[in-house]
Amino acid sequence: MAIELSADVLALLKDADSLIPAIAQDSSTHEVLMLAYMNKESLSLTLKTGNATYWSRSRNELWVKGLTSGHTQEVQSISLDCDGDALLLQVIQVGAACHTGDVTCFHQELEMERN
Amino acid sequence: MAIELSADVLALLKDADSLIPAIAQDSSTHEVLMLAYMNKESLSLTLKTGNATYWSRSRNELWVKGLTSGHTQEVQSISLDCDGDALLLQVIQVGAACHTGDVTCFHQELEMERN
């Protein structure tokens, strides 16, 4: 399977050679689950397979979400933002999105300091 | 007004000197509105004022969302992710989040290529 983006999609990206932040949102609960990064290969694989595939910045490799944990993300849709430099995935999340076991990675609330 | 982060918040950030992607989600509709970036000054201002304040990478300056357009974001809560390198804001969005006039910046859907 070729992991190349179509010319149509490439033309929409602001910079096809940089990492693009990708937000995963639960398509059912609408909870924002996590933010990860895609390069053009991982975006291509995600579009072709329907399984959310990111680029791991720590391991420096393609990362099929859930490949080891089983906590996969079945992608319902992907949208690009107006600047062509951020992605939003609507996903069916199997199990917990976060490696901590939490439903969402955004579980550390900061205290507002308004008086 | 000092625009310094508290030591508590600083300690939670993976890298306080880098830009942190910040997702704005409508606290009422749960729609993901946009992704922008914060540095520690803009995060501090957001926590203190309750008005979403980003760092504009194109203008290289603090960017109080809606200051010129009137399309402000009143922040209800801010959460940090498990890695300390992404933020999720729950906001009350006044007017359209996107400079195009769209409700959300994520209005360009990509075509899935699954067979």
Structure in words:
The first copy, chain A, has 115 residues and is α+β, with helices and mostly antiparallel strands. Chain A has a domain at 16-93: Ubiquitin-like (UB roll) (Roll), CATH 3.10.20.810. Chain A has helices at 7-12, 40-49; strands at 20-26, 32-38, 53-56, 61-64, 73-80, 87-93, 108-110. Chain A has a 4-stranded mixed beta sheet. The mean pLDDT of chain A is 95. Chain A binds chain B through residues 6, 8-9, 12, 21, 23, 25, 30-32, 34-35, 47-50, 75, 77-84, 86, 88, 98-100, 102, 105-114, and chain B through 6, 8-9, 12, 21, 23, 25, 30-32, 34-35, 47-50, 75, 77-84, 86, 88, 98-100, 102, 105-114. Strand 7 of chain A pairs antiparallel with strand 5 of chain B, so a sheet runs across the interface.
CATH class of one domain in chain A: Alpha Beta
Oligomer: homodimer
**CATH architecture term of one domain in chain A:** Roll
What would the average pLDDT of chain A be, to the nearest integer?
A: 95
Strand runs of chain A, count? 7
Largest interface: A-B, 41 and 41 residues
Q: What percent strand of chain A?
A: 25-35%
Structural class of chain A: alpha+beta
The CATH superfamily of one domain in chain A is known as Phosphoribosyl-AMP cyclohydrolase
Give the helix tally of chain A.
2
Radius of gyration of chain A: 15 Å
Main-sheet strand order of chain A equals 2-1-6-5
End-to-end Cα distance of chain A: 57 Å
Q: Which bin fits the share of residues in helices of chain A? A: 10-25%
Main sheet of chain A, how many strands, which sense, barrel?
Answer: 4 strands, mixed
Low-confidence segments of chain A, ≥5 residues, pLDDT <50? none
The string of secondary-structure elements of chain A, in order, is HEEHEEEEE
What is the fold-level CATH name, i.e. the topology of one domain in chain A?
A: Ubiquitin-like (UB roll)
